[in-house]
Amino acid sequence: MNMTKREKEFYNNLIICDEDKIRAEKSLKSKGVEKHLLIKKRLLTWNKVDSIEYEKIASTYRYDKRIRHVLFKYISYLEEFYRAIILDNYFNRIRQKFWIEEFKNKIEDFNHNLNDALEHIDFRVLLIQCQRLPKLKRELCLFPKSKFLKDNSFALKELRNAVMHNKFLLLYRGFEECYVNGVDDGKSASLKANILNLIQFLPSEVGEQCIKDINACKEDRNKEGDTKWDLPSQVIISIDI
Description:
By secondary structure, the chain is mainly α. It has helices at 5-11, 18-31, 33-44, 54-90, 101-109, 114-119, 123-131, 135-139, 149-164, 191-201, 204-216; strands at residues 14-15, 52-53, 178-179, 187-188. The strands form two sheets. Strands 1-2 form a two-stranded parallel sheet. The chain is elongated.
């Protein structure tokens, strides 16, 4: 196999069995050499030796993808939940003084069709608009009771964007600080903190299922022909139920 300089760098000090060499070659082509190098570099910082097993890199990649799929599911739930509250309560009462300017303009753009307007606003506008609803309707959104709601909403929006843009979350450094219990004295910009932040926005029973789904991402679900599941403990995100 003719390898580029960067591919050779990836294979340098890589412990890989013969069965995984073909899988690794396909993975480098489909997912990119640089992403694999970034994962390898991060995992090596936790190693006592300067070599790393390919299984650990492959498992980390698969783990990150599982987390993205779970977060996509629950962020999508939240978007649908917020849209439904506005649509169900105001579908025949389009003209409201509490509409924020961006949402009001979108309603006008879509000829006062509230459903179409809701489907074409971004998540940031949706979050702000829900928080500007009259008290009784705003309570339906089940926002976490916190003096940091504005900061946590901004962090939630950034997590949403990272997931929807398919960022590699375990390496991503664009998360915003949020205020949640269970991490770094209640304030952190880590992936775990941002997941906990999402969970506190969800209805309680939905949030409990999200926790279970996140915790299940670390499980060995190998099928015949898969690279051995060998997930480094340092990347695992565990959330107490």
